[in-house]
Structures are given as C-alpha cells and as structure tokens.
Amino acid sequence: MVTRFLKRKSKAMKITIYKVLEKGQTYQGIRIHGFSEAIPDFMKGIKGCFWKHELRLWLVPNSKENYAKLKGFFGTTNIQISKELPSAPKPKEAPLQTIPIKPFTNEQNDAIVKLETRLRLKRYTHQTVKTYLSCFRTFLQALDGKNPNLVNDEEIEAYLLQKINLHNWSESTQNQHINALKFYYEKILEQPKKVFDLRPRKPQKLPEVLSKEEVVALIKATNNLKHRSILSMIYSAGLRLSELTNLRLDDIHYDRKQVFIKAGKGKKDRYSLLSEDMLLLLKKYLEKYKPSFWLFEGMEGGKYSSRSVQNILNRAKKKSGINPYATTHTLRHSFATHLLEDGVDLRYIQELLGHGSSKTTEIYTHVRKDAKLKIKSPLDGLGLTDE
Q: Can you give the pLDDT at residue 235?
C-alpha cells in the first residue's frame, strides 16, 4: 500500500524557474505550463511579484521563503530549475480535431480573432473560450472557404442537421455549437435572433441520489483520514468536484461555520455549510497532514487532482457496495435532496448550491421521498391480501 502511494505523482501544473536579473535585483522567473484561474491571485499575493510581458514570466523576488511558497502551491515534483533564460514561448498547436483540412481564409481568420477577443473581454472562463473557438472552427471548416458573415439561416440549419446525422451529436454537444454560433452572430455581428430555436429537447433526467444510509456506508468505507475528509466535505457542503479541489486553507471559516467557494460555476462566489462533524474531522486532518496552501494537497504538495478524488470514490463504492453508478456529483445531489427532506426551504438550498435559477433546484422536489411515502397506492385498499 505504501509503495503504491509513493509512486503516485501529483497532477498539479508544472513550472520552470529561471534566474533573472532585473534592474540590479535577482528574481525567480516563473513560467507556468498550464492554466488555472487560481494562479493570478496566488502570484499577486507574493510580495514584490509582477508579470514580465517581454519574457512571458512571473518575476518573484529571490528568497527561500518565496521558493517555499511556490513548492507549497505547485508541489515539489512539479518544479524544474533551468539555468538558461527562456526564449519566447511557441504558440500552442491546435488539437487534431480542430485543425482544418483547408487553411482558413482571411475573412474566417478575422472572424476567429473577433470571437476570441470578445469572449476574453467579456471575461468568459478559459474552458468556455476554448470550447467556443473549437466549435466555431468546426463550423468554418464546413463552410469550405465561405465568409461566415454571409451565411444565411438555412445554411446554419443544414450544417447542424448534417452534424447530428453524420456524427451523432448528443444534446449537450449540439447546445455547445449553437451557443458558439449564437455568440458570434448576436454579440459580434449584432444580428437578431433567428435560427437559434434549434435547441434540442432536453431529456427529463432525474439526478442519482444516495440515501443517508448509503452516504454513511460510503464514508465509513474510507479508512484513510484525508480520503474520508474529502468525501465528507463534498457531501457536507454540496460541492462540485472542481470546487473541492480548488478549496484553499483560508476558505474555511471556522468561526462562522462556513465554506467559501471562490469563482464556482459561472465565476460566482458563494458560501456553503461547514457542519460540526466536518469541523472535528478537519481538525484531525489538518493536525496530521499540515497542508500549506490548498486544503487538500497531493503527496508532493500542489493541488489534489480530480482524478485522485474520483479514484477515492470508486474504491469506496466497491468496498461499501452502494450504487455503482454514483459519482462525486451524486454526493452533491444527495446533499440537496436530504436538506429538502429535512425541511430546508428551497430558496436556501438554491443559494448553497450556487444555482442561478430556482428551476434548476426544483428538480430535487421530484426525488425527495418523505412526501411520497405518505401516499398510498390504490392497490392497498382493495383487500387482496385478506383472502
């Protein structure tokens, strides 16, 4: 068991450190390989740190204290020291699936630049920008050189229909592509809404929910203190997986018994619950593991990976024998459903979950069991068992 954990590598982002002389002062030049919205806040929190645009580096005053902060945030094994000053970074190659068969025309490249510029000015998340650009490039590729500004409604409809038929697009994929086209034609070209009533009918799926007994069995199946704390925190506060891995030590407000979720889905900050039992569990966890920046860190420091959390849950499911289809999001669904069954107002649950619309939260009224258990089937009144 020990050997297996020692072999596990942290999946936090990697950095390269260069020695940089700037205005007579020595700095640690930090190049970060990857992206996270938490990085700017962390780097700006280091006294004297600033961004050097010409080198594409963060310059951090050279000191043992600052190096220790970098190790705590990124993890020891994710830091590489280089003696040579870096050259300008090469542009990232587009994923294979987004590389067009034919090169884009000047008009199409101009459209891509305008789309990316507007998305970044509107401060859309990195993942949303990436997704919209990929969808838009796929659309341009299908135009075979035509200027997208001259495309009519019928051509867009034919494009979507072709992709649905030939590539078997799911409802969510179709929605992503419609959102990208909608943004370009409505926000950039300022055209009125026209062909975007082509959204697919959403399947009326109910969320998977565990009973309270299943949650107990799942958490008790984790003997490791850190693993138990991770699963308990997701259920205790109703967190998304990314929200759990992005929790910092400072996000736990012990006196107010609240968990602060910074920039959750839709870049919305919110507070959620910190239960009494979770407080006691966290106290034991912090005394044993002593994380330096993130609440949950990997073996060598740095942010705990989402895949590792999923592996913890999979092992606990197998050991406890609960619903094998449960995911980390099932714990979030269970949190909401159990609050509703305990009589908590739906509006408060909406705030705790960070839902923008009450309609999203109302789905939990369809899976609560307390009210439905009071309803008797008409079969029970027929007296068939008395014969």
A: 94
